[in-house]
């Protein structure tokens, strides 16, 4: 049976498939780091998979007083059965930005280091065995923890926050036409719902989708506290925004952009539902493994059989006829070196 068909059958509701067949997710060579990274830039250019930057706690976990460290290391995988190439670097340590793969390279948008958030946007390119960067127009303001996707040659970025100490999320929606003679970020009408960070984006047939995320408000201690969201919206440049059916649960920081399982289904792969917010870090059971599948024609959601992983703050990359999930955060403060792949069709 073709892998994608097998996956789609396995995504049928449990009431229909009492004994669904095994998932088709397969592991690729792990990222060559002892710990792994949360929120690296990831994408593909000139047939290679690139994972660059990210943040982790290399010495001690955060509840033991460990310090989060941002990284500039970059890794190249030329084939799914190859070994990662190392010794590449970003211009500076960076994480928590938006990655969008384009024919010109991976567009890396915003992000942060241990001191600040950035407006910078640049292309990450693999040319003649070298990892190169090329500047693009900067965002209208500093931004990290946003989400984004491309419709054709136009990039869209939604939400985020301006500084590490921000107690409010951005209610902003920006676009950049890469084919414009003088490309400039445009400020568009935002979605008709709360501001948010760590939402999940998707793009399909000219529409941009925005799922879940978390709003920010000042807490009693003056620091940001999160409100978990499960709302959903769709945008078309000619039609504006439309509110969609809400997700069955929040899915904060799910791998983004959400992959298309078929021409009518978008899968939000896990995400943080906030159910363990007050659980001791050592007792945390990991994030939900249940995908939430949105059916576009019916505007309905359903749950699908569990994934073999539960990773957040990571990117979905389409590469070598695969969906790829490279690393991310397995539990609060705990990173993963795992790289998971799903075949799109028979090789």
UniProtKB/TrEMBL annotation:
Residues 1-18 form the signal peptide. InterPro entries: Kelch-typ_b-propeller, NANM. It holds the Pfam family NANM. Keywords: Signal. This is Galactose oxidase. It comes from Phragmitibacter flavus.
